[in-house]
Amino acid sequence: MSFVLESIMRKVSDPTVHDAFIKYSKGIFNQKYLVQSKKGKEGWAIKTSAEYVNSIIGAGLERISGTVDVTGVIVATFNVAEEAGFPTKGLKQFMGIKQVIVEGSIPAQKILALMQKQPRAFYALSFTFPGGSIKTKAKAPKSAKPSTKETTEIAPDFCTLKTTDESLVAQILLDVPSAKTVTLSHSIAITSIESPKGITDPVQLREGSIRVGTIERTVIADDVTTKQSFPFRA
What we know:
globular, 11-stranded antiparallel β-sheet, 21% helix, 11 strands
């Protein structure tokens, strides 16, 4: 399972990156891709904001060979249950957003297949996997809005990952996987949007447009602060 920031930093072309930025307009979006990580004797305890959820869920499921006891919701603008390929427990709807309730023992590969088929849905799921556990808030994330001066600090508490899997940790922390304590935050600046020619349908236009900008990355690793900037086209 690919991680958006990892692909951007490694300059890897990945449709996951494009899907992650469709919701953004032009402007500056502060406090995105937030992480708080602590390394202890029994592995890592990592808390993240909602932007990491799909990647972490997918990475956890990829480490499961059979069924998994899972709870949570899958959020989309359509009824995911109709394409799930596994039983669901109900449906909540509000303002055009549908939340399919998931609870039970489900083959991990069936959830992964749905994620590959519908990557833009939001998979707010909780389960254990070999080498760790994932606990995610069973709700839809807040919509992306440009930041203002009144923006308050946001806690990275949407998803909690506990794991001994160093390879998974490295995908999240990237350049500081061995630090005992890590805090990550990112500011996304969308400077221009390149729209495809010959398309008038507003949905197709939005989904086909390329966002261009920079990501400002702030890392506090073992009390040492560093900052980096990465250009992107997504």
